[in-house]
Design goal:
There is one protein chain. This protein is α/β, with parallel strands linked by helices. The protein has two domains: 5-127 and 305-341, Medium-chain alcohol dehydrogenases, catalytic domain (Quinone Oxidoreductase, Chain A, domain 1, Alpha-Beta Complex), CATH 3.90.180.10; 131-280, 3-Layer(aba) Sandwich (Rossmann fold), CATH 3.40.50.720. Helices cover 25% and strands 25% of the residues. The chain has helices spanning 52-55, 131-144, 162-171, 183-191, 206-213, 227-234, 264-269, 286-298, 315-323, 338-341, and strands at residues 5-11, 24-30, 38-47, 76-83, 93-96, 103-107, 113-114, 151-155, 175-180, 197-200, 218-223, 237-245, 273-276, 306-310, 330-334. Strands 3, 4, 5, 6, 7, 14 and 15 form a seven-stranded mixed sheet that branches. Strand 14, helix 9 (315-323) and strand 15 form a beta-alpha-beta unit. The longest helix is centred in the middle third of the chain and has 14 residues, at 131-144.
Length: 342
């Protein structure tokens, strides 16, 4: 590999809540050389996930925290620039946890998958055809078990996961109700993602609006927020409801843990079930989910939005912007284009 610069976004300080730009720094290092069994990947797109808040937190989480001074953990999509693994060739498009950096030298076993669908943009491998779409697919169908004519309510309904959940629920014949922040996202829910009803939680009277939109109760609640939105939804659960805990975006910090209304009585009286979901429990079933999602996209049954920032310099502040609701669609950072790589 010819000499050059590899820009890396490293964790400089550990935040107590939502990470801000000042918690990161951009460092220039030489482009690494792949060792035997490794591939050198030129990243094209970096992913921004709500889960990144947990990845940099010192509070216990499902993954080890990113170490101070370490490259920020991130799913990326890139192209193989050099290979010393016979399974991969220069020019292959791949995805994996390659971090916020221009280049990554990784063992071939660390590549999540090779992208072979040439009719769908490679950026989708970080969104609707990545962990966001897979989360929507497996969490809704395996945990939510939606049935035709049931009412499915989704919080952060215009987001990368929520928008896909709503559309999969429609494919299953359900009535869908989305909860989002602001008139623009509410309109997106109705006009692009096909929700039967959409509620702006910022407009007030949330409980009354949920009751109006769900006169027969809520059979499945896909929870991406926790907090006051979920407190309002719980009051409208139908008998036998299923609640999927996928995210807690409204909670700025879990140290100390926030206090709020208790859900036990709602679950007891309605004989409802609540279960947490992590996509990493379904790794061996990714091909199944990806095939279905790609088929639905080609058939026009699933639409998606991407919110693309330009340049690695955007990375340090991108997580905070996500929690401020600045994005319309899956938030990505483009750090190189396919045309630039030749």
């Amino acid at each position: 590999m010819s000499s050059g610069v590899n820009r890396q976004v490293r964790l400089k300080a550990r935040p107590s809540g939502i990470p801000q730009a000042e918690h990161f720094e951009i460092v220039e290092t030489p482009i690494p050389e792949p060792s035997e069994g490794q591939v050198l990947i030129r990243n094209l797109f970096l992913s921004i996930e709500p889960a990144m808040r947990g990845w940099v937190s010192s509070v216990g989480n499902y993954a080890e925290p990113v170490p101070l001074g370490g490259v920020m953990r991130s799913f990326t999509v890139g192209r193989v620039a050099a290979s010393r693994d016979p399974q991969f060739s220069p020019g292959d498009f791949v995805t994996g946890l390659f971090g916020w950096q221009d280049y990554a030298a990784v063992d071939g076993s660390e590549v999540q998958r090779r992208i072979t669908d040439t009719d769908i943009p490679v950026s989708t491998a970080l969104g609707v055809l990545g962990i966001n779409g897979l989360t929507a697919y497996f969490a809704l169908l395996e945990l939510g078990q939606p049935k035709a004519n049931e009412t499915v309510v989704v919080s952060t309904a215009a987001g990368a996961v929520g928008s896909c959940v709503g559309q999969i629920a429609k494919i299953q014949g359900c009535r869908t109700v989305g909860i989002a922040g602001g008139p623009e996202k509410v309109a997106l829910c109705r006009n692009e993602f096909g929700y039967d009803a959409a509620i702006d939680y910022r407009a007030g009277d949330l409980e009354a609006k949920i009751a109006e939109a769900c006169p027969n109760g809520i059979d499945v609640y896909f929870d991406n927020t926790a907090g006051e939105i979920s407190d309002a939804v719980m009051k409208r659960l139908a008998v036998g409801a299923r609640v999927i805990i996928c995210g807690t975006a409204s909670i700025s910090s879990w140290d100390p843990a926030p206090l709020g209304p208790r859900v036990e009585r709602h679950l007891l009286v309605k004989r409802a079930r609540m279960q947490g979901f992590l996509i990493f429990d379904y790794v061996d079933r990714y091909p199944e989910g990806l095939k279905m999602l790609a088929d639905w996209i080609r058939a026009g049954l699933i639409h998606y939005r991407e919110d693309i920032l330009e340049g690695i310099e955007q990375a340090p502040g991108a997580i905070a912007g996500l929690y401020r609701g600045e994005n319309l669609g899956k938030r990505l950072i483009r750090i190189a284009s396919e045309s630039e790589l030749g």
